Amino acid sequence: MKKQFFEFLKKCFLAGLFFALLSMNSAIGQETISGTVTDNLGPVVGANVLVKGSTNGSQTDFDGNFSIQASPNDVLVISYIGYASQSIKVGNQKTINVVLAEDASLLDEVVVIGYGTSKKSDLTGAVSQVTAKSFENQPLTRVEDALQGRAAGVSVSGSGAPGAGIKVRVRGVNSITGNNDPLVVVDGVFGGDLRTINPNDIASIEVLKDASSLAIYGSRASNGVILVTTKKGAGKPKISFDHFVSISSQARSIETLGSGDFARQKNAGLIANGADPAYTEQQISALDANPINYEDQLFQTGIGTNTQLAVSGGKDNLRYFVSGNYVNQTGTVIGNEYERFSLRSNINLDVTEKLSVGVNLYGSRESEVNNPDDFNRFKGSSILKTLTWDPTLPVQDSDGNFITSSNFANNGFNPIGTLLRSNRDRAADRLNTTINVGYKFTDHFKYSLVVGASTINQNIESFIRDDNPSDANPNHTRVAYTNFRNTSHQVSNILNYNNSFNKHNLDVTGVYEFQGDRNTFNGYDTFAIATGSIYLADNEDQSRENFTNDGNQNAIQSYLGRVQYNYNNSLYLTGSMRIDESSRFAKGNRTGYFPSGAIAYSFNNMPFIENGKTLSSLKFRAGWGQVGNQNINSTARFSLTNDAGNYPFDGSTLVSGSTLIQVGNPNLTWETTSQTNIGVDMGFFSGRLNASVDYFSKTTEDLLLRTIIPGTSFAKFENAGVVENQGIDLTLSGTIVQNDNFTWDSSFNLSHVKNEVTELVNDVDQILGNIRPVDGTENSINVIELGQPLGQFYGLTFLGTWKSTDDLPDGIQAGDAKYLTDDEGNSVFSTIGNGLPTLTWGFNNTFNYKNLSLNVFINAAHNFDVYNQVAAAINGGAGDFRDDLSPLSVNKWTPQNETELPRRGSLNVLNSSRYVEDGSFVRLSNLKLGYTFDDVIKNVESLQIYVSGQNLVLLTDYSGYDPEVSSTPVNQDLNNTDAGAGIDIGAYPNPRTFTLGLKLQF
């Protein structure tokens, strides 16, 4: 019965809402007055335009436009929180354009809330806003850097490679094997990629965090929503030019044995085992005199340039913002480069007083060369392999040939030679088009159409060579070409009714939306001898050739209704219902219903607030809602086979045929997250200081969990498992000091999140992960465990060394590594750490003294571990890592010095708590000093020159390069790096960067 009701509601929703809203309006019969409200930066969105002495009012739209019915004798009052109000008599004017001046004592931002805007003071949900003003003092090439540490409840981490992907998480992680990335919406269109957006184009970023805010996006919103609004032009023409040059370098080093010391330690180990030494004293002396440092060979000084040119303005009914951006960076690892061209054009036109049209175009071309994270990382990344390579051998011999193998240390190929003789080029073209059409039936009732289309075309050409060029065996020369293409489209129809009746304020929104996308993938690779061109191969052995063709397409249809009501700007109510139908599920399971409700009460009209000198605003908020997740492959419900499979039915002879690789599940349906949020907003000293505190609790059920059927290798998706997240978000911001010559603006945010897996599939207690230690063994080093958070490390518990006075078990010698065992003496594998931070914070300060400005930004994360597989490999003695390169090896256990470092020859187990370290850190992320010149050059409105530094100071006990970055897990086919967070197999470190730049505005 409930389902039938919702189906009926879905079919009748738009028609019923349309006629209901029309019936609430009546024509006033007065003349229409239109105009634009701007400030010194552009359009003011959500400004109130009211006929003085009446309840007849209107609000400005996204472009700052308004229209209202008024007579010549009326006076229009234009107001916006944070600006001084203006009163203008209508008279004979049909068009009134207003420029508002900021009033810092009343500042209250307008925030984007999805399918509309709201004053921050009117919010009932939890929304974090990051405006361009908050990150304009930090030279940025990536949007994620603008979010990092500036929004409570939002964590950002990733690789230090230029152009590499960044992981963003909102209020913890929900899914075990699914995707935990938040939805990115750019100017109302889904599917944006933060990595490719030019930060200088952004006007504001809003992060929707609680379910009452997220439910409006339904199926896409379970991991949070990031709304990006790009800049629009208004007022007199302006030309802005921004250029900076950066120099980046390796911020920290990992100490390993020098060439001579390694030779001495190797000799000592050989002699201890009764063998002859490998190096003579003369050779060791030569190595001391001319040491070989492979870390120095790997890292380089990175140079980067960023150039931005933007033109904006508006006159009469036309407004424009056009920008071009060019980024060129060399990474701090040899051979690594990144380049991006981008162009944006935002044009807005008022065709008539009622009809407006906007067209946004964005195109980019990015090219990435030799990101070491994309090379073979089966036994560690290129960085890890470099740190464990034989330091007694040069990269090339006297004839210029690369030395590719060694009898000692790392048993793989020379990693420097591999990087220098390989080329992996990724090129991606992106084109996004958005058309916005708005039509005002009346001053209170309007229709908006958003049509978006995008295409992404990415090619990867790679030639990765590990063998010596003189070798005849081509088995380790891999030639590959892949092409990925994505096309998507979106159509959103939005009806909105907004009106005030005395003290009652009503805002009703209805949406019908459709989105579809199609992906195709083609690839070819071979182990072959290159001929003619670096990307062509002559391979007579076709068994080494692989061809891949794949693709999928998805569609989703949505209906939405939202009602926002407030009484006398005191009592606020919000309710919404979204209905989504996804093609990823079978018929009968495609429809998801996502309701939400929120309530807030503001005490600002109370005498103790109005007359108070300290507390200037107070509001309590509470909300509940549900959102969904359908982020699985479109083939998840089908059984899949490999038609090129082979199977030995008689135990020896392979027979060709089809083999099962995935068991279908037609009963799959929505993963659902329910969230409760309770918050309080406070203002002090007439808005000089503002604070927000939110408590949230969210539960994700019916997880889209990828499992392996017991006793087989067959995968299957199921709706099973429960994950819970609870936490607190805190935001403080204000103007600490403000006088004629000096201001100090400061903001602080903090988030605490507790994550727990409360239910798994088939009543099991744990699911072993698929990440392996870098020694190549099959032991998992991550685990998903009931009652514990995601991101658990798995291994042995290291207890030091066995001493000569201990009762030694059979097969154990004094000085061997000692691990926790059970009552029967078997080693115990268990959880030994966790890679998800529970506490993060950021502290941003901007000081201005006359024309001098200083920005100091600090961010931090606490209460998490890093599984340091780099340190494990440096200690050698396992798999390919045959020898110890750790400087600590000089203090190994000996009968004369019984330390806690195992003796030479003792088995080094890489997956043990010996290599789990505290990852907590505090980082000085940005320090910028700038000076703005006045009236220096004719027709130049402003000129600023600045110097800055990023990642200048890192306070941490972690012994690796950087605790904030984690390597992308090897063999990660679960599409979820959170189940293996904090595992370092040689991550590309964040560089230390110094920047010199200038900003010009004409």
Characterize this entry briefly.
The chain is mainly beta and 1002 residues long. The protein has 11 helices and 53 strands. Among the domains are: 2-106, Carboxypeptidase-like, regulatory domain (Immunoglobulin-like); 120-233, Beta Complex (Ferric Hydroxamate Uptake Protein, Chain A, domain 1); 259-292; 635-667, no CATH class.
Layout of helices and strands, plus pairs?
Blueprint: H1 2-23, E1 31-38, E2 48-51, E3 57-59, E4 65-70, E5 75-79, E6 86-89, E7 95-99, E8 110-112, E9 117-119, E10 127-131, H2 132-135, H3 144-147, E11 154-158, E12 166-170, E13 183-186, E14 189-190, E15 202-208, H4 211-214, E16 225-230, E17 238-249, H5 259-272, H6 281-289, H7 294-298, E18 302-315, E19 318-330, E20 337-350, E21 355-369, H8 382-387, H9 415-420, E22 423-440, E23 445-465, E24 477-501, E25 504-527, E26 529-530, E27 537-538, E28 545-567, E29 571-582, E30 591-602, H10 607-610, E31 615-629, E32 640-647, E33 655-663, E34 671-684, E35 689-701, E36 704-708, E37 715-719, E38 722-738, E39 742-759, E40 766-768, E41 782-785, E42 792-796, E43 798-801, E44 817-819, E45 829-834, E46 839-849, E47 852-862, E48 865-868, H11 869-874, E49 916-918, E50 921-933, E51 942-956, E52 983-984, E53 992-1001
Parallel strand pairs: 1-7, 13-16, 33-37, 48-52
Antiparallel strand pairs: 1-4, 2-3, 2-5, 5-6, 8-9, 10-15, 11-12, 13-14, 15-16, 17-18, 17-53, 18-19, 19-20, 20-21, 21-22, 22-23, 23-24, 24-25, 25-28, 26-27, 28-29, 29-30, 30-31, 31-34, 32-33, 34-35, 35-38, 36-37, 38-39, 39-46, 40-41, 41-42, 42-45, 43-44, 46-47, 47-50, 48-49, 50-51, 51-53
Main location: membrane
Subcellular location: Cell outer membrane
GO cellular component, one term: cell outer membrane
